[in-house]
Amino acid sequence: MENGRPAAYITGVGIVSPIGVGRKAFWSSLLANESGVGPITLFDPEGFEVKMAAECTDFDPKDFMDRKVAQRTDRFVQMALSSTKLALQDAGAWGFLEENPERVGLLLGTGLGGVASIDRTQWEMDNKGPNRVNPFAVTKIMPNAAAAHVNIQLGMKGPSVASALACTSGTDIMGLGLDLIRRGDADVVVCGASEAVISPVIVAGFIAMRAMSRNNADPEGACRPYDRDHAGFVIGEGSSVLILESAESVERRGAEPYARITGAGRTTDAYNITDPDPEGRGILRAMQLALEDAGVEGEQVGFISPHGTGTAAGDGPESHAMRRINPSTMVSATKSTLGHSMGATGAIETAICALAVKEKKVPPMRNLETLAEECAELDYVVDKPREAPDLEVALCANLGVGGHNAAIVLERA
Asked: What dihedral angle (degrees, nearest 10) is formed by the CA atoms of 15, 75, 309, 168?
């Protein structure tokens, strides 16, 4: 119990990322400060002003599913199913799922759903005609496709939710998982988000928004959160699924948690469709609400995993909001390494917070050389991981296009 309310214990971590597939490979590469950014290979970027992305180059869906399932699903679904299998294996929870499928919930977020399948379906219509469209086109595209396929393939029969809340989806879904545990609607909640948006339409759209870095000459140095030369994000992809459990389930199974989620906060800027509130009031209030929910004071927060996209519009307000939470907290913006995986980013960063609390080690961010004038002074962890023997509380916070904000508190289990 935290603040008189149950916590959600994280007992399994499954990740598909640009720097590794699986918890161990991902964490090792992140601590080694390895960049996941390189040239776009998922489509031909000829004629595009941006030719770089953070692709999951080590991911092969055939390692996790048979050919028929892979053919009938979009890449974001394939990543979600793979991450779920990895997370269940990591938690040792296959047996519980087989014996108690009605007590296993599934919450999977995304920002945009099957956009690569939209591109492919349009190509089929243009080149073959509408009568030759793939019969699985709609079920590849729909945002709930990941939740549907994971349930069908793995047999989960508890409550399920498919959330689409732009770049806040992954963090928001963790708060929903905490809510589900608190209400007692499930003993185990498979909770995460997946995104695969490195497609011509989406890349062209973000270029038109002038939201992306154009530093094609130096892909690994292109995303520069809080740096004087920040000029936009690098688009990425990936999936992260965590196994959340009640305290009773952890005790019954003898599971060893990584951390526990103890609070969640959600707000809306109601300001602008693309830019966050320039005063950072929405993200600040989301973090404050999460801390209040957890019964934690700001000075107890030892590490914040921020949105940190490397945009001038976002970096300044967000950094000052974090300083108001705790001016001495450690901060590491890992989109500089992983790219921006849109709806999946909060789920990936929740996993980072859980591993940091468990291992008492904060992973580094890249490319912060000279702090931008508009950004607040904080203890940014740059280039090398930081040992954190006193780390007990971490905060994960994200902003979404449309003005959505979400934050969650993680504590040592």
From this structure: -80
Q: Hey, which bits of 234-368 come out as E strands?
A: 237-245, 259-268, 303-305, 330-331, 361-362
Residue 93: strand, helix, or coil: coil
Q: Return the ∠ at Cα 185 (arms to 180 and 187), rounded to 5°.
A: 85
User: Which residue type sits at 255?
Assistant: A
Alpha carbon distance 284, 200 (integer Å): 34
Task: Count other C-beta atoms under 10 Å from residue 253's C-beta.
Answer: 17
46 and 53 Cβ atoms separated by less than 8 Å? no
Residue 139: Cβ within 10 Å count: 18
Q: Which residue type sits at 110?
A: T
> Would you name the residues annotated as active-site residues?
167, 307, 340
- β-sheet bridge partners, residue 266: 406
| Residue pLDDT, tens place only, 377-394 | 999 999 999 999 999 999
Instruction: Identify the sign of the CA torsion 269, 273, 275, 278.
Output: negative
Contact 275, 317 (CB under 8 A): no
pLDDT digits 0-9 by tens, 162-210: 989 999 999 999 999 999 999 999 999 999 999 999 999 999 999 999 9
Residue with token string 């699903």: 73
Question: Is the Cβ–Cβ distance between 386 and 331 less than 8 Å?
Answer: no
State the greatest distance between any 2 C-alpha atoms of the chain, in Å, as a whole number: 62
Q: How far apart are CA 119 and CA 76, in angstroms?
A: 14
Residue 389, token pair as written in the block: 């023997």
Do the bridges between strand 404-411 and strand 393-400 make them parallel or antiparallel, or are there none, so unpaired?
antiparallel
Instruction: Quote the crossing angle between the two packed helices 312-325 and 281-294, to the nearest 10°.
Output: 30
3-state secondary structure 353-393: HHHHHHHCEECCECCCCCECCCCCCCEECECCCEECCCCCE
Domains, the chain, with CATH or none: 8-253 (3.40.47.10), 263-411 (3.40.47.10)
Collapsed DSSP state (helix, strand, coil) of residue 92? coil
| C-alpha to C-alpha distance for 364 and 362, rounded to whole angstroms | 7
CA dist., res. 108 & res. 228, Å (int): 36
Taking a C-beta distance cutoff of 8 angstroms, is the pair 297, 291 a contact?
A: yes
- The answer to whether 183 and 114 have CB atoms below 8 angstroms apart is no
Whole-structure pTM value:
0.96
* Contact (CB, 8 A) for 141 and 321: no
